[in-house]
Amino acid sequence: MAYTESFPVCERLIHLNHAAVGPWPARTLEAVSRFAQENVRQGSLGYPRWLRVQQHLRDTIRNLINASSSDEIALVKNTSEGLSMIAAGLDWQHGDNIVGIRQEFPSNRVVWQSLEPQGVRFRQLDLAASIDPEQGLFGLCDERTRMIAVSAVQYADGFRLDLERIGRFCREQGILFCVDAIQHIGALPFDVQAIQADFTVADGHKWMLAPEGLGLFYVRRAVLSQLRPSQFGWHMMQPIDDYAQDHFEVARSARRYECGSPNMLGIMALVSSLEVLLEHGMQRVGSDLQTHVQRLIEGLQAIPGVELLTDTSPDRLSGIVTFRHPSLASKAIQQQLLQQDILCAERGGGVRLSPHYYLPPSHIDQSLQVIEDCLR
Which end of the chain has fewer CB atoms surrounding its CB within 10 Å, N or C? Predict the structure, then answer.
């Protein structure tokens, strides 16, 4: 099936906004429609099968991020919930510190700043003033650093960190490593074992092409005992089906971080979207996306006056390209593009373009032409 058939959005828009909210594949619409029809006609008769789909989603996520076991995967409402559970569940001591980045999306800053009343400091690296960001993070660490918490890819300009380098440092120093991967997973291959992450969190509604309201929460088995549950309910108990137990035991897997009823509608959608990505193959997804990104970069560099805010080093590129122009406000450029049915965002002082692998090359060329025309 052609990409334009698999992704009906291509018929209506040039979608360069996957770093915000991505469109669903046709298959996901079909899965959600089937599930809705089943509920209308049969209620919860099929619930045992729904639970098998839930487990299939865990297995699919394990494959997507190369976790060692699906027992390391919990399903959460969003990235903020997962990060908040980490902040609430670790045994912080007065004088501890967490090292991160000043330019992060708020979800990966305010959650750590919320610990300051407990005497836990959040030390922030200024990316704009750092020649070697990874070494800059290391330089902020000391004997009281408990965790490095960063985004794999910066939301505003697409800057991609060397996660393997950070993971090695953390493991050598006995520091926990937390990765907000919402701008990475689904766009480029991601391997939690290769980067030695202790925690990884990501929503499904961006590059994973699924609805808002469901995301993945990876907790490395070796640190499960360090992260106590901070939310409680029937779904996180062991065994899950003994509703009369007087003294509960938390699940031995990452299910201990799922306190209540699952988002079955979201599960049906997310598993369908991930199957689309995995059938294409994440190596190929990443390669096709990088082709679009490079085409955007070369095209923007050829337009007089355009300033790229994105680091164009091959090892720093992601799925995001951000630019600005000195004579026209970024908001005005973004609005002019929207009038031509090109969806993008104003972020980080520029116009953020975030295509995905399935876009026809003609969409990239058409977008560049519209940008050039509006900057004349």
Answer: C
pTM of the model: 0.96
Tens digits of residue pLDDT in 46-96: 999 999 999 999 999 999 999 999 999 999 999 999 999 999 999 999 999
Q: What is the 3-state secondary structure (H, E, C) of 45-82?
A: CCHHHHHHHHHHHHHHHHHHHCCCCHHHEEEECCHHHH
Helix, strand or coil, per DSSP, at residue 178: strand
Q: Coil, strand or helix: which one is 328? A: strand
Compute CA distances 274 → 36, 78, 206, 211, 215, whole Å.
20, 16, 12, 12, 12
- Residue ranges, comma separated, of all CATH 3.40.640.10 domains in the chain are 28-279
Which listed CATH number (3.90.1150.10, 6.10.140.1580, 3.30.530.20, 3.50.50.60) goes with 3-16+281-374? 3.90.1150.10
Name the residue type at position 50.
W
Euclidean distance between CA atoms 249 and 258, whole angstroms: 14
259 in helix, strand or coil?
A: coil
With residue 136 as reference, give the H or E element that holds it.
helix 133-139
The candidate with the shortest Cα–Cα distance to 374, out of 345, 343, 332, 346, is 332
- Model confidence at 354: pLDDT above 50: yes
Q: How is the beta sheet containing 199-203 ordered, strand by strand? A: 73-76, 215-219, 199-203, 176-180, 145-151, 97-101, 121-125
Which CA distances in Å does 296 have to 109, 143, 252, 285, 301?
30, 44, 47, 17, 8
Instruction: Please answer whether residues 201 and 182 qualify as being in contact, where contact means their C-beta atoms are separated by less than 8 angstroms.
Output: yes
Range list for CATH 3.90.1150.10 in the chain: 3-16+281-374
Q: What is the pLDDT of residue 1?
A: 42
Please say whether the beta carbons of 256 and 229 come within 8 A.
yes
pLDDT given for residue 214 in this prediction: 98
End-to-end, the C-alpha distance of the chain in Å comes to 39
Phi/psi at 243 (nearest 5 deg)? -80, -10
Q: How confident is the model over 117-161, as pLDDT tens digits?
A: 999 999 999 999 999 999 999 999 999 999 999 999 999 999 999
200/192 Cα distance (integer angstroms) = 8
Q: Is 28-279 a domain of CATH 3.40.640.10?
A: yes
